[in-house]
Design a protein that fits this description.
Strand order of the largest sheet: 11-12-13-2-14-22-15
CATH architecture of one domain: Roll
Helix content: 25-40%
Structural class: alpha+beta
Largest sheet: 7 strands, mixed
Oligomer: single chain
Radius of gyration: 23 Å
Strand content: 15-25%
Distance between the termini: 60 Å
CATH class of one domain: Alpha Beta
Shape: globular
Mean pLDDT: 93
Number of helices: 15
Number of strands: 22
Length: 507
Amino acid sequence: MARWVSALVLVSTLGGAPAAATAGPDAQMTWAVHVSLAPTWFDPAETPGVITPFMFLYALHDALVKPMPGNPMAPSLAESWSASRDGLTYEFALRKGVRFHNGDLLTADDVKFSFERYRGAGASTLKARVVSVEAVDASRVRFRLRQPWPDFMTFYGTPATGAAWVVPRKYVERVGDDGFKKAPVGAGPYRFVSFTPGVELVLEAFEQYWRKTPSVKRLVLKAVPDEATRLAMLKRGEADIAYSIRSALAEELQRTPGLTLKPTSPTFTEWLVFTEQWEPKSPWADRRVRLAVNLAVDRKSISDAEYLGFAKISSGIIPRDFEFSWAAPPYPYDPATARQLLAEAGYPRGFDAGDVFSDNVYVPEAIVNYLQAVGIRARLRPLERAAFYKADQEKKLRGLVRVGSAAFGNAATRIEAFVVSGGIRAYGGYPDIDGLYREQAGELDPKKREAILHRIQQLMHERVMFAPIIEPAFLSGQGPRVGESGFGRIVGAPYSLPYEDLTLRAR
């Protein structure tokens, strides 16, 4: 049997923390949320390679390992874990006595079931590399890999995927997938109370949560698509926290007595996808046309106008702070050269580019205006966020798609989802990049692996696979009732997390 090493063992410092006194029955915190409230967000199995579902998962569910304040890979449902010396086996020791909201005891069988049920971002990579998951006993689960894989914990133990988040097997099998999304049961700090589709989600503190009893009795998340309405609710005290307040409204928030602008810097990049670059008859198959798009966009103006200077101009789809990120040369704002490239490609008068799809939160009006200024005529097609992600995963969107991701991970996790052929959000791929991706996945030397991942990113840049735009800041507002909002406590997370640590000021 392989000898065990404890280099990866992390013993929780969170367990045994004194429980905070529960607030009174009127202690309710309300959010004006910028995204649609859809049942798909309540099921860890369906995470699509973006951060949105974790807004809900951190309340309803829990993971073996997840980012927490001061620890990007904190022991949670697993008290500790270890890896065999040969890198082929990972074993997790579960926290004893943890119960789901329905009273069922959480066991290794639930962990195994949740992994095997997982079908979201990274699922194909995880399941291709994991030979088996074994419930050794009720409180131990063992993963066996086909070959050493240095990224196992990045894919499994961070919100690059939702594979480590655990659901109750017996309940899911009894109610089915649709029933589970309608009335989710988890092991998180808050339990499901009610859901009005597209409108409101109500959660109540789960007093038996292993880490601590939440101090806020009730959480109410309201879907408010209009940014001005979110700010108005914050001003009137109808919301305690309002997500995604930008541009002039963010300046107004800053000026309003009693309100506080809370900027965070998530692992967030935003870019355009040329979905038809692999179709020879499409204008987007011509590298010069794709390069023209990159030169047509004034990224600094977008950053200053939308994010009050808190954002960063992006030259790639991978956040600059990610491990193995390569700093691509930035694209200058050069509309004259953009027009010249279009003429060389056979479009001296530009062309009709059809639709630019996006979710209805980040509508790229400025980008469309910049494209039209150089002759690329396009129409905006914003979609409700859950519907947008579904259509994008199913590869139903054509032309240009404004994509963004704030999912955790490293360069490999982002490439796996958006670049490699067959990736959950990839519309095509290149055989040499696919081969390099497979090569780096099995490379145990970090320097050699970094070199391979850098080469992939260089090829992405040389071929102009995408039009990177910006690394947005996430600007939110906080009202006067809030004590601890959670903003910035988990590095890289945009939301007010973890929920069990949030507080309201005493009246």
